[in-house]
Amino acid sequence: MSFAFNEKSNELANNALAKYPNDRKQSAVMPFLDIAQRQNDNWLSQDCIEYVANQLEMPFIKVWEVVTFYTMYNTQPVGKNFVQVCTTTPCWLRGSEHVVRACKEIISENPKNVSADNLFSWMEVECLGACVNAPMIQINDDFYEDLNYETTKNILLSLIDGKPLQVGSQIGRQGSKGVSDAK
Ligand code: FES
Predict the structure, then answer these.
(1) pLDDT for 62-90, tens place per residue?
(2) Into which CATH architecture does domain 7-69 fall?
(3) DSSP labels for the chain?
(4) How many whole angstroms from 84 Cα to the centroid of ligand 1?
(5) Statement: the pTM of the whole predicted model exceeds 0.85
(6) For the domain 81-181, what is the CATH superfamily, name and number?
(7) Which atom of ligand 1 is closest in space to residue 127's alpha carbon?
């Protein structure tokens, strides 16, 4: 097993553990996995999962059950910009297929393929809780909302060019304010 928390991850892990009684440290399994994933380029290798299991004195299979239940944990490498496209009903009704089309054109025809330059991968996911501004995508920790084919393409091209990006609504509305109020 070669993975181990670095100094920053150790500090985060200790903070997470402090929230639970000493004899309930398994309760910290989700934050521990998140910390491990962030340290390991946004995915959980077997080493990472074994490390978390050892740290929390849990059987590997118990930790694996958590990892495979939640889509927030990646069990294979992802691109530096990990694009999650919501295609659940509200986003689908608002045109998520055009968002998927832009991802296929710019990133890869097939989801979960990491681009040769390691810059991107994309995949379809279930509702990410921003339905009011559908359709939307999540790239790493940020949401981009009120998308169409053009705006999705622009976001991806801006990432390639290293241009600054505006997170949130791409039509200028604040929060979920009505479209007619958007400036
Ligand atoms: S359906 Fe897409 S965010 Fe909820």
Answers:
(1) 999 999 999 899 999 999 999 999 999 99
(2) Orthogonal Bundle (1.10)
(3) ------HHHHHHHHHHHTTS-GGGGGGGHHHHHHHHHHHTTT---HHHHHHHHHHTT--HHHHHHHHHH-TTS-SS---SEEEEEE-SHHHHHTTHHHHHHHHHHHT-SSTTPPPTTS-EEEEEES--S-GGG-S-EEETTEEEES--HHHHHHHHHHHHHT-----EESS--STT--GGG--
(4) 11
(5) yes
(6) Glutaredoxin (3.40.30.10)
(7) 4
